[in-house]
User: Fold this.
Amino acid sequence: QVQLVESGGGLVQAGGSLSLSCAASGGTFITYAMGWFRQAPGKEREFVSGISWTGANTDYADSVKGRFAISRDNGKKMVYLQMNSLEPEDTAIYYCARDSRPYGSSRINVPGSWGQGTQVTVSS
Assistant:
């Protein structure tokens, strides 16, 4: 069973940047697509970004396209989310997720494993 641990959240002013990291351990990483989801207060958890197992393909929610960038380092078993031009609407708990099946696409529809989440707060 893979364990996922996020880090890098915090408080930032609108227009600022944050970089999230996700460290994987205890399970298979390299053959799975990875992604980031978020959940704002009173809202459902939503897909933010995903990256294929090779790293060749990425996908983004329309709301973050052009502002966020996902990447992975298979050697270090790490996934990253660079968030730029942050907006108050980006305030949420951000979760790292591993796909439920290997060799999937960058659009994770059914996550199989979750991290504990990291809070991102963007002030206006």
User: Anything to note?
Assistant: DSSP finds no helices and eleven strands in the chain. The CA atoms of residues 4 and 115 lie 5 Å apart.
